[in-house]
């Protein structure tokens, strides 16, 4: 059996033992091998309906499903992925769960499938696994309501993620509700919120009462396994370098004009408004009208790919599709390159990912929003940030995409940053003490922008 050639590592054995509990919560950082732990533990379950075999539902972001396919194939376990129209997905689901077999079978689907195939909530699953389970953190969404309402009679419910509470401890509630039907004695999110939090005096959400954080941490600790790479001795060294770039004089004048107007608006408008996006896109080379106005970053990227990194496989991260397409067009003249955006079908994304992992593609250009979670790009140990995410969580997760715990080499992270711009603000803010969430990052970036515009006007 192939399984014998892949013994669980020490930290995976710890997780495997913990997962004897009925409804496990594996809050393990990315690349610690929690997928294999789930598969091995599920193999010990007895099917509710033996003539149909073990039936496990995996719900995950599209970018993570390819890794599940790889692991299950290596473990010699059958799997079916729900793709296509609603009718096609229903047919695949129906055939997959009702065909008689003695073998275990996994049904793989994305988190949005509940709207097209709600019938999956009626199946007598032996286990249901929510991978990157923070997708049910918001109690108001139809997605969260579906997953916390359905599957109540499933013998084994799982949640998996390395970042269960990226925006605060309130995000634990619905994940624990999915597992156990309650959390800290509460079955309703709003009753729990009213008991442990108070409204923010300025109207920005809710603040924890005294001792609330400790109470939540204790409750989570009693029901979940929390594991970080550094805790188990597998943290990798990261080498970070910045390539500082300057805007051409004409573009700089336009940039400063927009930023001066930007600074005079209210805090809420500043962060969410179009002008912030204009400033970011100007740093990437594109003007307010979407036209290409400079090539500072594309030129620097081309020099790196064809010069210092000429023999390296590289992942290049982008925030905007326009800059991604322009960079891809230029690189195609030099190297074997492929790109992924939100418009790239999931099956094609997986095809490109596998080609990259096999060394058939040297440069992969990716819009960061589609590959934050679950996408294994560890064939490379080098990433270039054409534009850094304005999200602390996305920044951390994109770095993990190239992490391979079996490699001895360090990770090389290169940042293309425009001086005296929102580019620089984001770069420094991501590293500031006290920045550990999207909310604290937003505040840090705003403070830096305000300081620069004050200095300019003074």
Distance from first to last alpha carbon: 72 Å
Number of domains: 2
- What's the shape? globular
Going by helix content, strand content and strand pairing, the class is alpha/beta
| Overall mean pLDDT | 88
Main beta-sheet strand count, sense and barrel state: 7 strands, parallel
Give the helix level as a range of percent: 40-55%
CATH topology of the largest domain: Rossmann fold
Named CATH architecture of the largest domain: 3-Layer(aba) Sandwich
Name the assembly state: single chain
Proportion in β-strands: 15-25%
Tally of helical segments: 17
What is the CATH level 1 assignment of the largest domain? Answer: Alpha Beta
CATH superfamily of the largest domain, by name, is Tandem AAA-ATPase domain
In short:
The chain has helices at 10-18, 34-42, 62-74, 86-98, 142-149, 172-180, 189-196, 212-223, 249-263, 267-272, 274-284, 296-306, 321-331, 346-357, 392-400, 422-429, 438-457, and strands at 25-28, 55-60, 78-81, 105-110, 127-131, 156-160, 197-199, 206-208, 225-227, 238-245, 314-318, 337-340, 363-367, 382-385, 411-418. The chain is of the alpha/beta class.
């Amino acid at each position: 059996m192939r399984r014998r050639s892949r013994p669980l590592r020490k930290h995976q054995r710890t997780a495997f033992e913990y997962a004897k509990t009925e409804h496990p919560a594996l809050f393990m950082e990315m690349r610690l091998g929690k997928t294999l732990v789930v598969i091995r533990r599920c193999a010990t379950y007895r099917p509710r309906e033996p003539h149909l075999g073990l039936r496990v539902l995996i719900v995950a972001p599209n970018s993570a499903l390819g890794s599940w396919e790889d692991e299950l194939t290596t473990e010699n376990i059958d799997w079916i992925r729900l793709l296509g129209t609603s009718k096609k997905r229903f047919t695949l689901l129906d055939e997959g769960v009702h065909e008689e077999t003695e073998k275990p079978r996994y049904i793989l689907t994305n988190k949005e499938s509940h709207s097209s195939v709600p019938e999956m909530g009626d199946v007598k699953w032996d286990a249901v696994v929510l991978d990157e389970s923070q997708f049910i953190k918001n109690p108001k969404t139809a997605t969260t309501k579906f997953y916390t309402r359905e599957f109540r009679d499933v013998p084994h419910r799982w949640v998996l993620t390395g970042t269960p509470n990226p925006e605060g401890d309130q995000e634990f509630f619905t994940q624990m509700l999915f597992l156990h039907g309650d959390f800290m004695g509460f079955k309703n999110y709003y009753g729990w919120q009213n008991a442990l939090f108070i409204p923010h005096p300025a109207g920005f959400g809710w603040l924890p009462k005294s001792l609330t954080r400790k109470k939540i941490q204790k409750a989570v600790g009693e029901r979940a396994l929390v594991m970080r790479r550094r805790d188990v001795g597998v943290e990798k060294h990261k080498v970070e370098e910045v390539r500082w770039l300057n805007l051409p004089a004409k573009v700089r004048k336009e940039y400063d004009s927009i930023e001066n107007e930007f600074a005079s608006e209210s805090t809420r408008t500043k962060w969410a408004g179009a002008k912030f996006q204009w400033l970011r896109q100007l740093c990437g080379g594109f003007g307010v009208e979407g036209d290409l106005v400079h090539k500072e970053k594309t030129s620097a990227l081309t020099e790196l790919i064809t010069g210092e990194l000429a023999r390296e496989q590289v992942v290049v991260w982008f925030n905007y599709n326009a800059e991604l397409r322009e960079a891809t067009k230029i690189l195609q003249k030099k190297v074997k390159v492929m790109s992924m955006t939100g418009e790239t079908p999931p099956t094609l994304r997986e095809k490109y990912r596998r080609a990259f992992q096999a060394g058939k593609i040297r440069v992969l250009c990716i819009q960061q929003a589609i590959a934050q979670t679950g996408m294994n790009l560890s064939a490379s140990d080098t990433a270039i940030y054409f534009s850094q995410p304005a999200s602390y969580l996305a920044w951390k997760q994109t770095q993990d995409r190239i992490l391979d715990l079996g490699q001895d080499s360090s990770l090389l992270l290169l940042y293309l940053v425009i001086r005296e711009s929102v580019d620089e603000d984001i770069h420094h803010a991501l590293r500031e003490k006290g920045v550990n969430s999207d909310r604290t990052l937003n505040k840090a970036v705003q403070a830096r922008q305000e300081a620069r515009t004050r200095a300019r006007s003074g």
